[in-house]
Amino acid sequence: MNPIARAREAALHHPAPRSPAPAPAQPAANTVVALRGAAVRVGGRTLWSGVDLDVGAGEFVAVLGPNGVGKSTLVKVLLGVLAPADGEVRVLGERPGQAGQRVGYLPQRRSFDASLRMRGTDIVRLGWDGDRWGVPLPGRSGARRKAAGERIAEVIELVGASAYANRPIGQCSGGEQQRLLIAQALVRRPELLLLDEPLDSLDLPNQAAVAALVGRICREEGVTVIMVAHDVNPILARLDRVVYLAEGGAVAGHPEQVITSETLSRLYGTPIEVLRTSDGRLVVVGQPEAPALHTDRHAVPGQGGRSAAG
Ligand SMILES: Nc1ncnc2c1ncn2[C@@H]1O[C@H](COP(=O)(O)OP(=O)(O)OP(=O)(O)O)[C@@H](O)[C@H]1O
Question: Gene3D superfamilies under this entry (predicted)?
């Protein structure tokens, strides 16, 4: 039986699993993110439900799925910006939004006007004291300023941005801007870093460079990373696990186990084919779009499904 026929057979006869395996009742001690039976609703529509997920300390996890399935919305739930409609969500042992600076966040791509005079260091500094702009610091403000300056320089060095950090941000390339924004998210030494499509809009060399940087931050700095990704390939070799979201739930596990024709066909209830190119890249064919009107900034005109995993 060919892969499509096998997938169709599996999709017809085995309903999509709501979770990859029976979840433990309580998260393990080193669990950074835990979801139990979580569901999310926006605009009166349930995006996903019955999601069980554990992310352990120091893991590098990608959140994948078709456009509009609710990947960014998962990040908003973890940030505490949006309450889950059902189930339980814990971030660093607390309710979402309660862990403060222990969580760093890089939103979906922002572009800077070429004429913006703010320097890279100013952008990084916003991550340190952006919430206190204009408010004089009480007491030992000189010592605090010095500590802030040292940490900002340290994190700029960490992301390899020292050479251009004093340049106006609008004159930095997309990859340089992204490194500085990652530095901004890291400046308060978060234990968990939430990155929403940080590789989007970057050319291939910059995707590889930023992927390597995030992998290094995870391995060497011990930061747990959850990255929403449109294409898994640039980070595939560095990932501990992937989470594929679907309307009916989620599947999490090692990329080799999850990104398969059988698993994705079962999850989405429709035949999906996963192909591996000669250079090891994964290509997902036939992945459905979310069942709602959605402005699809990733769509390629004339294609029925995505041509890259994610
Ligand atoms: N506040 C809101 N009110 C109504 N609908 C919303 C709201 N926020 C998000 N949505 C919708 O929810 C769906 C999921 O959005 P989300 O941005 O999480 O998807 P995504 O998987 O990250 O998509 P993409 O890959 O295109 O970035 C989309 O259809 C979006 O239009």
Answer: P-loop containing nucleotide triphosphate hydrolases (3.40.50.300)
